Amino acid sequence: MRSGTDEISDDVPGVLETAALLREVTAGLIASDDFDAALARLARTAQDAIAEVTWCGVTVLRSGAPASVAASEARLRALDDVRYGTDGPAMTAIRQRELVWSADLRGETRWRRWTGQALALGVRGVLAVPVDVDEHVIGSINLYARQPDALGAAQQLTAMLLAEHAGLLLGAVRDRDRQAELVGEFVRKPSAGRIVDQAIGVIMTQRGCTATEALQVLRSASAALAMPVRDVAERLVTSVARPRDT
């Protein structure tokens, strides 16, 4: 009879491998502020760290934006592409919000078109698990094996833990990505006060008037055009800055 200690010791390698995987994923994503680059890093890490997994792909759907697809090997990228619609394990996992598994694709009948291409690429087993990033972003982590029956219970458990952990990290990456975009937009677009000050300077130069008189000119133009003062100011500054034909 096996003791409880024996059972725990048998599980230790899998526990340690999973812990190492989560640490590596955390290290790779925690400092990233590029969402698509983070997806690619996740795919490569999962391929290298999960036993029996030959390739890994990640499919992500973002509301109001094109879908993102990352793959640990470029030639398998099409397997995770949303152009297949619901015909594929990734989209099935995303739609049903549950783990999708096929031990041997040679007997698979759910995704005939997708399965044909997967088999042609040397894929025999697939495991797709949904990942939730935030209220606007959902996706699937897709594990592929070259050998049939290679993706079993251990890989399923690891994939579910990975999806939960990666979802939290990708949510943080997405937040940083959005913040970086906002900062960049702020830098590119002058503030309302600054653009109005620039317009006042232009009017003072053109008319030889005071700042108070220039501001009144802006306000009068704003009322006449039914436009905010800032928009009138921006048009004026842009027109002055535009190169003239010689």
From TrEMBL:
- Give residue ranges for domain ANTAR: 176-237
Any single Pfam family the record assigns to this protein: GAF_2
Q: Does the keyword Transcription regulation apply?
A: yes
Q: SUPFAM superfamilies annotated for this entry? A: GAF domain-like
Q: Which terms are listed as keywords in the entry? A: Transcription, Transcription regulation
**Native source species:** Plantactinospora sonchi
Query: Could you identify this protein by its name?
Result: GAF and ANTAR domain-containing protein
